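Below is how a single chain appears once it has passed through the pipeline. First comes the sequence as given, then the structure the pipeline wrote out for it. We keep one example in the README because the format questions we get most often are answered faster by looking than by reading.
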Amino acid sequence: MRKETQTLLFDFNYLGKRCREQTTLKDTKANRRKMEKVLERIELEIIAGTFDYGKFFPGSSRAKVFAANGNPGASQTAPATPPITEVVVNTAPSVATTKAVTPISPEPSSPTFAEFAAIWLGENEAVWRRNTIRAASIHLNSYLLPYFADMPLYSVNKAHCLDFRAKIAREGGSLKGKTLSAKTVNEVMQVLGAIMAEAAERYDFANPMQNVKRLKARKVHIEPFTFEEVQLFLKHVRPDYHSYFTVRFFTGLRTGEVHGLRWPHIDFDRREILVRETFSHLGREYTKNEGSQREVKMSEPVYRALKAQHEASGHFSDYVFCSKVGTPIQPLNVNRRIWKPTLKRLGLKDRRLYQTRHTAATLWLASGEAPEWIARQMGHTSTEMLFKVYSRYVPNLTRKDGSAFERLLEQRLGGGA
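Resulting structure:
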């Protein structure tokens, strides 16, 4: 590397002469790999006696010297037993050079994208949640395989990745006529990046996704309920779902966490909800991540709601919120049959069911609870997400133990209501 410019240069021997050729490439791992591949070609052509200096370095003064001498290297016959070489990069003085080791293949060997994607997905099935596997499979089959399937992995370059991103953002990939959001495009590109990063390490080629940036996604604005709206909703919701929505509004549990609640994870003595698993249409499984494993404090209304629910269904189902036959209730049914009709009947703004989680966070903030305590209740490993999402709802925060929120509930709902 030339110190003055911090750029890489070629350094090799040709016809007994040391040849040094400057480039404009910065000293990065990707650029070193590019130069190594060029040096591989140079070495192979030198061995074959077909090396043309001017073809590789057309503006070089050495190229003119070799050309004036008839470019003797290009007219040499290949030696009967060619030297065995491999291209390497010295870290000091950071220049490309060669040493004698093992033979080089002019093209790296690797499976096609589709072949490796199947290997990659299979290897991760043992450690991923079912929802993660399902999402990755959808992105692969709907978007990635139609574009990359038959391409050898080593041939995928940054231009292909950028063209693919533009294509799915513009045309919706295999979903013709539908424009994908920046968030979805980023999710698809994240799968592509994971596949190419693993392949690049395994088959020793430069990762084409290394410097491909995420699209800028629009900020999603939350729409939490006011305390008055929560009271109105709980007053008029179908009675058999009153306990369910009390828990949702005042604990901040995710949908899958509420539906996956089982009675062994309800500690009435300590007044804690033990979040240990989730439930979806794919079945019961581990929580979203390690940080989601937590103990959520029961406020008085939540404690009373769970006690009432235990009397109603605790004798015939392991699940806290269940159907008449004891199976977990389905989020889609709750959304269509209970949530949206109740909002419409009360004249409340239509919102996603997930807004109950945001409502709990904003009510905690309004009551003056400390952000660290709220983050733990919601399953966040830090307060970063809390301030990012709920910054406009953050007042002066001094409390740490949940008592401020308890007082707010007591004042607004009453001791025995």
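The beta strands are 7-14, 17-26, 86-89, 96-99, 266-267, 272-275, 277-280, 283-286, 294-297.

See the next section for the split statistics.
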